[in-house]
Design brief:
The chain is of the alpha/beta class and 375 residues long. It has two domains: 4-239, DHBP synthase, CATH 3.90.870; 264-374, 3-Layer(aba) Sandwich (Rossmann fold), CATH 3.40.50.11030. 33% of the residues lie in helices and 18% in strands. The protein has twelve helices and 16 strands. It has helices at 21-31, 35-45, 67-77, 95-98, 104-113, 130-133, 147-156, 176-183, 222-229, 272-288, 319-336, 352-362; strands spanning 4-7, 50-53, 58-63, 86-88, 118-123, 138-142, 160-161, 189-192, 203-206, 213-216, 233-234, 264-269, 293-297, 309-312, 340-343, 367-369. It has an eleven-stranded mixed β-sheet with strand order 1-8-2-3-7-4-6-5-9-10-11, sandwiched between helices. It has a five-stranded parallel β-sheet with strand order 14-13-15-12-16, with helices on both faces. Helix 1 crosses helix 7 (147-156) and helix 2 (35-45) crosses helix 7 (147-156). The protein is globular, with a radius of gyration of 20 Å. It starts with a strand and ends in a 6-residue tail after the last strand. The structure holds adenosine monophosphate and magnesium ion (MG). The site of magnesium ion has 3 residues, from loops.
C-alpha cells in the first residue's frame, strides 16, 4: 500500500502559552475546508487508517464505530488485541452517543480540561464495538486540543479510535517522520502537522467508580485534577518501581513493555555529580567490552559525559522540554546504533511522575540507586 503524505505544518500546537478558545475554533473551521483534511476524512469514512497530530503524540486513527477498521489499527501497530483504543471526539455533543452515562465528575473534568490531554473512562454505549474496547464494558474518550485533530474528527463526523502511531512497544511518535519510520506502507495516509506540543500520551482517569482514579500519568497532573474534583486515587502500577505480576493494571496497555529503544537502558538515580561520575565509570567499562554507549542527559549536564553518543533531552529548568523530547531522543539512540543507554532520572516537578513512568518502562524497570560509595 502506498502511504499518502499530507503536509499541514505550521499550525500552532504549543501547550504552554495557550491557544485561546476562539483562536482554536477559528483554525478548526478553516482547516475543515482544507482539501487535505477533506481527503483524509474520506479515507476514515471508508474504513482506512490516517495518522494525524494531536497535542500529546501522533495518533493512528480509524472509524471507532467500525470493528473492522479498528482491527486494521491493531494489525498495523502489531498491538495486542486486549489493549483497548481511545475514542477521540471534537465536541461535547458527540459524547452521549458513545457512552452509557456521564458521571458528574466527568462533566466537571471535561469543562476544565477538554479539549486537552485528558482521557476519561466511561461505561460504553452499545454502538461502540468490542473491537475498539478490547471486549471491555467501558470506553476511553478524549477531546484533543489540536486544530488538525479536531478538524479531521469533525470533518469525518465520526468518533475516531486512535492509539499512538508507533509500532507496538516502540517509543510513541512525536513527529510525522517518526510515524513514517514505523508505519510507511502499512497505512493509508499521514498528516504532517509538525512537532507535537506535550510529547507524552494523555493522562487517563477512570470516572466510573465512586472516586476518580488515575490510570496513566500525563501532562494533566494529579494535583490539577484534584483542584477540579477533590481527591483522586492513583492506580498503584503508575509509580511501581518493579513490575508486580500479582497486580493487574486497570488500563490494560500499562502492562506491556513500552516506549522501548532497541538498546539496553539503565536509569541512574542519585545526586547529579555522583550520577555523572557513576555513568562515566560504567561507560568506560562498557566500552572496554566493545559496546557503543549512549547517555541521556540534560542541557545542564551534557558536558559532564564521555560516552559515544550524549544526547540532551531538554532543560532541567523547563521540564516541559524534557517531556516533549523524551520519545524523540529514545529514537535518536536507535538511529545512532548504541548498545547500551545510561539515563539520568527526573523526579522533581509536576511532570516528574509522567516522565519517570515512561522512562521506567523504556528501561524495563532497570534502575540503579547511585550512592557516594559507588563512585
Ligand atoms: P494509547 O492509545 O497507545 O496511548 O493507549 C491507550 C491506553 O488507554 C492504553 O493504556 C489502554 O489500556 C487504555 N485504555 C483504553 N481504553 C480503556 C478502558 N476502557 N479502560 C481502561 N483503560 C483503557
Ligand atoms: Mg501507545
Amino acid at each position: 500500500m502506498e502511504t499518502k503524505w499530507i503536509a499541514l505544518d505550521g499550525w500552532q500546537t504549543e501547550m504552554d502559552g495557550g491557544l485561546e478558545k476562539e483562536q482554536l475554533e477559528g483554525q478548526v473551521s478553516k482547516l475543515k475546508e482544507h482539501p487535505g483534511i477533506v481527503q483524509a476524512a474520506k479515507i476514515l469514512q471508508k474504513g482506512g487508517l490516517v495518522a494525524f497530530p494531536t497535542e500529546t503524540v501522533y495518533g493512528l486513527g480509524a472509524n471507532g464505530l467500525d470493528s473492522e477498521a479498528a482491527g486494521r489499527i491493531y494489525a498495523a501497530k502489531g498491538r495486542p488485541s486486549d489493549n483497548p483504543l481511545i475514542l477521540h471526539i471534537a465536541s461535547m455533543e458527540e459524547l452521549p452517543g458513545i457512552v452509557r452515562e456521564i458521571p458528574e465528575t466527568a462533566k466537571k473534568l471535561a469543562k476544565r480540561f477538554w479539549p486537552g490531554p485528558l482521557t476519561m473512562i466511561f461505561p460504553k454505549a452499545d454502538c461502540v464495538p468490542d473491537g475498539t474496547t478490547g471486549g471491555l464494558a467501558t470506553v476511553a474518550v478524549r477531546m484533543p486540543k489540536h486544530p488538525i485533530a479536531l478538524a479531521l474528527i469533525a470533518c469525518a463526523g465520526l468518533p475516531i479510535a486512535a492509539p499512538s502511531a508507533n509500532r507496538s512497544g516502540r517509543p510513541s511518535t512525536t513527529t510525522a517522520w517518526h510515524v513514517k519510520e514505523d508505519m510507511d506502507g502499512q497505512i493509508d495516509c499521514i498528516i504532517d502537522g509538525g512537532e507535537v506540543g506535550v510529547g507524552l500520551e494523555s493522562t487517563i482517569v477512570d470516572v466510573t467508580g465512586e472516586k476518580p482514579m488515575m490510570l496513566r500519568p500525563g501532562y494533566i497532573t494529579k494535583e490539577m485534577l484534584e483542584e477540579a474534583v477533590g481527591e483522586v486515587f492513583l492506580d498503584p502500577v503508575i509509580t511501581a518501581t518493579q513490575p508486580d505480576p500479582t497486580i493487574k493494571p486497570k488500563a490494560p496497555g500499562m502492562k506491556y513493555r513500552h516506549y522501548a529503544p532497541k538498546a539496553e537502558m539503565l536509569l541512574c538515580e542519585g545526586r547529579e555529580q555522583e550520577v555523572a561520575a557513576y555513568i562515566n565509570t560504567q561507560t568506560e567499562r562498557s566500552q572496554k567490552e566493545g559496546k557503543r554507549v549512549g547517555v541521556l542527559a540534560t542541557e545542564q549536564t551534557r558536558a559532564a559525559y564521555r560516552a559515544d553518543v550524549v544526547l540532551s533531552v531538554g532543560s532541567r529548568e523547563k521540564e516541559e522540554s524534557i517531556a516533549r523530547h523524551l520519545f524523540q531522543v529514545l529514537r535518536e539512540f536507535d538511529e545512532a546504533g548504541v548498545d547500551v543507554i545510561y539515563s539520568e532520572c527526573f523526579e522533581e516537578g509536576p511532570l516528574g511522575m509522567a516522565i519517570m513512568n515512561r522512562l521506567r518502562k523504556a528501561a524495563g524497570y532497570r534502575v540503579i540507586q547511585v550512592e557516594e560509595s559507588d563512585v
